[in-house]
Structures are given as C-alpha cells and as structure tokens.
Amino acid sequence: MAQKTEGIQQLLIAEKKATERVNEARKRKALRIKAAKKEGDAEILAFKNEKENQYKQYEQEILGKKSDSEAQIQVETNKKIKELDAMMKQNRGKALGSILKLLFDIDVKLHENVKL
C-alpha cells in the first residue's frame, strides 16, 4: 500500500510540475505576444509617419501648382475685365444712340377703329 501512495505522490508531484511548466509556457507566450504587439505598433507608427510625410510632400506640390494656377487665372481675369471695360467705353455712344433712337423715333398714326 505504501507503494501505491508513493506512486500517487509521484503522480501528484509530476502533475504539479506539468502545471507549473504549462503556466510558465503561458507566461512566456504572453510576454512574446506583448513584445510582438509592441514591435508591430512601432512598425505601424513608422509606416504611418512615412505615409503622412509623403502625403504632406505631395500636398505641398499640388498646393504650389494650385497657387500658380490661381495667380495665372487672376491675371487673365483682370486682362479680360480691362478689355471689356475698353469695349464698353468705345461702344457706349453707339448703344446709347440706338436706345434713344428707339425711344424717340415714334411713328404716330391713328388706330384702325378710329373713324373720321
């Protein structure tokens, strides 16, 4: 009987050691996962920063082109406004004459229903 209890004791000790090893393995696994997560977060942050820098550089290129385009459009608009102003001043007399002619050139005649 002593041998049986001794065998049981050995089994209990072996089970306890196995449980400890499993717990240690779980702890090591958790540490590896945490380390991998930190490493992954660092890589993600580096990638994100790189892409943000690329985007900012691209944005600066586009905005630089956009401001050049806006300046060119403004110059062309001012030129067109000056041309239209000059044309208006040049043709103001003709237009006013045409309008006055239409207003004051009245042909007076009696209505067809009027009997003399």
UniProtKB/TrEMBL annotation:
BP-aspect Gene Ontology terms: synaptic vesicle lumen acidification
Alphabetically ordered keywords of this record: Coiled coil, Hydrogen ion transport, Ion transport, Transport
InterPro entries to which the protein is assigned, alphabetical: V-ATPase_G
Coiled-coil region: 8-68
A GO CC term attached to the entry: vacuolar proton-transporting V-type ATPase, V1 domain
Pfam families linked to this entry: V-ATPase_G (PF03179)
GO molecular function terms noted in the UniProt entry: ATP hydrolysis activity; proton-transporting ATPase activity, rotational mechanism
Residues spanning the signal sequence: none
Keyword Iron-sulfur attributed: no
TM helices/strands, residue ranges: none
UniProt xrefs under PANTHER family: V-TYPE PROTON ATPASE SUBUNIT G, VACUOLAR ATP SYNTHASE SUBUNIT G
Function: Subunit of the V1 complex of vacuolar(H+)-ATPase (V-ATPase), a multisubunit enzyme composed of a peripheral complex (V1) that hydrolyzes ATP and a membrane integral complex (V0) that translocates protons. V-ATPase is responsible for acidifying and maintaining the pH of intracellular compartments and in some cell types, is targeted to the plasma membrane, where it is responsible for acidifying the extracellular environment.
Family (UniProt): Belongs to the V-ATPase G subunit family.
Quaternary structure (record): V-ATPase is a heteromultimeric enzyme made up of two complexes: the ATP-hydrolytic V1 complex and the proton translocation V0 complex.
UniProt protein name: V-type proton ATPase subunit G
Organism of provenance: Lymnaea stagnalis (Great pond snail)
